[in-house]
Design goal:
- The chain is α/β, with parallel strands linked by helices.
- It folds into 3 domains: about 25-160, no CATH class; about 165-265, 3-Layer(aba) Sandwich (Rossmann fold); about 295-485, no CATH class.
- The protein is built from 16 helices and 11 strands.
- Strands 3-2-1-4-5 form a 5-stranded parallel β-sheet, sandwiched between helices. It has a two-stranded antiparallel ribbon with strand order 6-7. Strands 8-9 form a two-stranded antiparallel ribbon.
- A hairpin with a 2-residue loop joins strand 6 (about 275-280) and strand 7 (about 280-285).
- Helix 2 runs antiparallel to helix 3 (about 65-85).
- The longest helix is centred in the middle third of the chain and has 33 residues, at about 295-330.
């Protein structure tokens, strides 16, 4: 018995020693965020004080605001941090992904603003309104920016293979492969799938995608310990009853292993998901796809105003690009190609010509040489591309004439890639959902890698955009497009 206990203790000691190598830095995330918030709030107090005393708009002849900070300053400083902590802004689960972290920091900050304003009014304390407005107006954006910088640093570390979680997925092999595909694709999440556990009776050594099966779901705690897993994902079909799942979660809890339940739902944005516990049963409600909202007047107004503004600002660049195309071989400046728009309506899509005049005649031979089998044809070092065309493509300047397609209502600033009619002819029912909205000059496909993406991945991103459209997502894609263009990733 003593030998067995000693063996168990040694295993636990080895596990305790192994955890810091992967998890110690992650355990410091809340403390790092706290230090960042302290620095930001301190900086905000200094800037707000200086602004109140020096900016002419706040010069009202009152006393120096520093006299008031001896009372309100410490209360506001500590209260702000306590409000963020009380709102869950330092919980480890909010770091790394999702909007919860930002929302909690924002809600806590607004609560502090309301409490300070109401408190000073009720206590008749003469707090400078200039200081108050500057502190809140600067503090909230700086706090959110600090959290954003911390998240970007964490994502960068994950992509480099640092601070990653070891993951075991338990469930039916088909669903294990679905979840693993998402986790392996989104490297910024920081999950390394090290193995799987399947229901009793599954005899294969690997799943369909090649993930090693480490054992049965009935012996999950031991499987997790052998794999030194930090997180266990419960996928569909993992357990026969809810009691089995609850018992497995209890056992993993004793080993300090985190449990994540992964329902058989993918590519659904958080805004469409609502969890409502009913009688102890957490029910997931999915809102309808948002493709209809992407066709409303607000998006059309945004597209029209944005396109006209961009044409006005970029008109010198457009003229220079047109001149370079014409000067090279005196051929047509624009390349007009039939593309398929919303609801299958075809239109002429405008681009600056970046290839030789007989590019279409050479296409069949290039298809044969490249072994092209369908989808969107792209190749690096395409011999048909002209010298000015290389420059135009590198920075996506060749696509600027599509702004006129946007003005005409044939395209949107943001949307799925406009497909060729030959591509649409091969669409199945799922892929036809891409045609529910206007095609876009940019979209998730572009900011995620453009031509470096596989055909299946580009299609998946387009369908995700259509089903989960929001104006905030459009704004985010436009901002990310700037980085994608100047980075020239996947541009050829």
């Amino acid at each position: 018995m003593t030998v067995v206990l000693d063996s168990v203790e040694r295993k636990e000691a080895r596990r305790a020693a192994a955890i810091p190598a992967r998890q110690r830095a992650l355990s410091y995330l809340p403390a790092t965020a706290l230090v960042g918030d302290i620095v930001v709030i301190s900086l905000t107090a200094v800037l707000a004080t200086a602004g109140r005393n020096r900016l002419p708009v706040f010069q009202t002849g009152g006393s120096d605001v520093a006299d008031q900070l001896g009372v309100v300053g410490p209360l506001m400083f500590v209260g702000w941090l306590l409000a963020i902590a009380a709102g869950g802004g330092y919980q480890r689960s909010v770091f790394g992904a999702g909007p919860d972290e930002y929302r909690r920091v924002l809600n806590a900050s607004l609560t502090v603003a309301a409490a300070v304003g109401i408190g000073c009014y009720l206590a008749k304390f003469p707090l400078s309104r200039g200081f108050f407005l500057l502190a809140i107006g600067l503090g909230i954006p700086l706090l959110l920016l600090s959290r954003f910088a911390l998240r970007r640093a964490l994502h960068k570390a994950h992509r480099k293979g640092l601070l990653r979680h070891r993951v075991v997925i338990v469930g039916r092999p088909s669903h294990i492969d679905e979840i693993a595909a998402v986790l392996n694709r989104e490297t910024w999440l920081g999950y390394d799938v090290v193995g799987a556990a399947t229901p009793l009776g599954h005899v294969a050594d690997t799943t369909g995608s090649g993930i090693r099966v480490l054992g049965d779901a009935d012996d999950l705690a031991a499987v997790s310990a052998r794999a030194e897993a930090d997180i266990v994902f419960f996928a569909s079909g993992a357990f026969r009853t809810s009691s089995d799942m609850r018992r497995a979660a209890y056992e993993l809890e004793q080993h300090r292993t985190q449990v994540v339940v992964a329902p058989s739902v993918t590519d659904v944005a958080r805004e469409r998901v609502t969890i409502r516990p009913v009688g102890g049963l957490p029910l997931m409600h999915l809102d309808q796809a948002r493709s209809a909202k992407a066709s409303r007047w607000a998006k059309r107004t945004f597209d029209l105003v944005g396109a006209v503004a961009l044409i006005t600002v970029l008109s010198p660049l457009i003229v220079v690009a047109a001149a370079r195309v014409w000067a090279f071989d005196h051929g047509p400046i624009l390349f007009r190609q039939i593309r398929t728009g919303r609801d299958g309506v075809e239109f002429r899509c405008f681009k600056f010509r970046t290839m030789v005049v007989d590019a279409e005649a050479r296409l069949e031979r290039l298809h044969a040489e490249a072994g092209f089998e369908g989808g969107l044809f792209k190749m690096k070092d395409d011999p048909r591309i002209t010298k000015p065309g290389t420059w135009l493509r590198r920075f996506s300047i060749d696509e600027l004439p599509q702004l006129f397609n946007v003005v005409r209502g044939e395209m949107s600033l943001v949307g799925p890639r406009p497909p060729l009619p030959s591509e649409v002819a091969t669409y199945d029912d799922d892929m036809r959902r891409r045609l529910r909205v206007l095609p876009g000059m940019t979209g998730l496909w572009q900011v995620s890698g453009r031509s470096d993406l596989s055909w299946e991945e580009a299609t998946r991103l387009d369908i995700y955009y259509v089903d989960n459209w929001s104006m905030l997502q459009d704004l985010s894609i436009l901002v990310r497009t700037v980085g994608a263009v100047f980075g020239s990733r996947g541009a050829y």
